[in-house]
Amino acid sequence: MYMSMTRLGTYLFPDSAQSGGAASSSQAAGRERPDGSDPLPRVVIIGGGFGGLYAARSLKRAPVRVILIDRRNFHLFQPLLYQVATGGLSPANIAAPLRSILRRQKNAIVLMGEMVDLDPLKRRVILRDSEVDYDFLIIASGSQTGYFGHDEWQRLAPGLKTIEDATRIRGRLLSAFEAAERDPDPAHVAALLTFVIVGGGPTGVELAGAVAEIANHTLKHDFRRINPADARILLVERSERILESYPPDLAKAAERSLARLGVTVRTRTSIVAIAPGEIAVESDGRTERIPAETVLWAAGVTASPLGRVLHERTGAQLARGGKVVVNPDLTIPGHPEILVIGDLAHVEQNSKSLPGVAPVAMQQGRYAARLIRNRLRGRPTPPFVYHDRGSMATIGRAAAVADLTWVRFSGFVAWLIWLFVHLMYLVQFANRLLVLLQWAYNYFTRNRPARLITEISHSERESEAAADHPPVPRPPEV
Ligand SMILES: Cc1cc2nc3c(=O)[nH]c(=O)nc-3n(C[C@H](O)[C@H](O)[C@H](O)COP(=O)(O)OP(=O)(O)OC[C@H]3O[C@@H](n4cnc5c(N)ncnc54)[C@H](O)[C@@H]3O)c2cc1C
Fold this sequence. Notes:
Layout: E1 6-8, H1 16-19, H2 24-27, E2 42-46, H3 50-58, E3 65-70, E4 74-76, H4 81-85, E5 95-97, H5 98-101, E6 108-112, E7 115-119, E8 124-127, E9 130-133, E10 136-139, E11 143-145, H6 163-181, H7 186-192, E12 194-198, H8 202-218, E13 232-236, H9 248-260, E14 263-266, E15 270-275, E16 278-283, E17 286-291, E18 294-297, E19 301-303, H10 306-314, E20 324-325, E21 331-332, E22 335-340, E23 345-346, E24 348-349, E25 352-353, H11 358-376, E26 391-394, E27 400-403, E28 408-411, H12 412-425, H13 429-445, H14 458-468
Parallel strand pairs: 1-9, 2-3, 2-10, 3-6, 10-22, 12-13, 12-18, 13-14, 20-23
Antiparallel strand pairs: 4-5, 7-8, 8-9, 11-19, 15-16, 16-17, 21-22, 24-25, 26-27, 27-28
Helix pairs in contact: 3-11, 6-7
Bound molecules: flavin-adenine dinucleotide.
């Protein structure tokens, strides 16, 4: 554990005494340290997700000290979270310890800690229990699930952003089938077997497809009283169509694949209320109540709270969703030493804001590293330009849609491309191998071996929810 409010200095890099003069050109940028430590410029990176990790790795040969700080000790491959949530993969398959990823990068150290504040005048990051000085700061703290001002829905409709979210969703999905198996009331069984996924973006589509696979195939022979295939899976989307950011023909193909799996897609439908065991939706001005015990939230994200910290401490502007408006070189106005990248940054290109996707974060991470290297050499860096190589989403076992910008695919071919791309971008070789084997096994057996309920049971959750939302008091009897 860290000492309280320790300023983390020289001892972070034990070799600093010998290597302090390794890069004379860089020393100008490194500040005199009050503790007399290593003068190499110190690049502090907040967040070991796609943006932060790619920035750290791209600084491998730069004459700098890299300090990567994350509140978790691992890098998480979020695009495969839905597979953990639906029992196809285990958490460790899609996460890798940051220390292990950077173990050979001698100019980098990893600290587990949470940034809570910033002192831009002293160039100091304030962690929950210590402080770190920087010469350059890259903030890549990503985003979190957003409920459009309805934070009270969070407990009833979990979002999918962290490993804990994924195991919580997995627990809820599977406990609903367990509870249905022992419930004598057919109406309640129907509610238990109704799964509502809110949000028809790629995450909602992938979740809906995987839930349908579980109901129709994985659990087919597991129960005696209920037929899991009776499950009703609703994908609710408030706009005109699902996969809005995809070309309409691919969105149509995705809708057809979902229909084949038994998913009901409800577009132009908004959620207006969520209560234990029931949701209310509004479409064409009509409100409808749907009994449903499991509601999953895939409708939106909002920027990391560090955006607000930056706004308060530096005056940086915030855009929609709390993203930080950055200069074309990803620095914030008035602070050429602070860069914001990934889901937290608001960057416009061709009058459109860049999407919150992994390739944007990765390219921005590499760019941030290049900008710092150039700065140290006194060279300019042209503005950041995002190269869009396309997007893709899977629907169940062997179908996907892929828009590679110059060509589009749907169905099995798109699925193969999806598999290949996701394997390639998994961070460690061991994970790539394990996921490949696991996928092959899941494909041929239609099994999902990681379907463990590690969260509280359905009945425990019901009593918790009842305590949170007590029934309306009845008038006293006379
Ligand atoms: C379920 C899901 C599916 C997705 N699917 C796809 C997909 O198929 N394709 C695609 O391109 N993109 C996908 N995305 C989006 C993609 O994962 C993000 O755009 C990408 O992760 C953004 O990278 P980032 O570096 O900005 O943030 P992240 O990767 O989220 O990393 C942020 C890091 O910062 C750390 N952190 C946060 N706050 C602090 C703090 N105060 N102090 C210290 N550390 C902190 C976090 O622990 C985390 O490690 C998906 C996202 C989700 C949630």
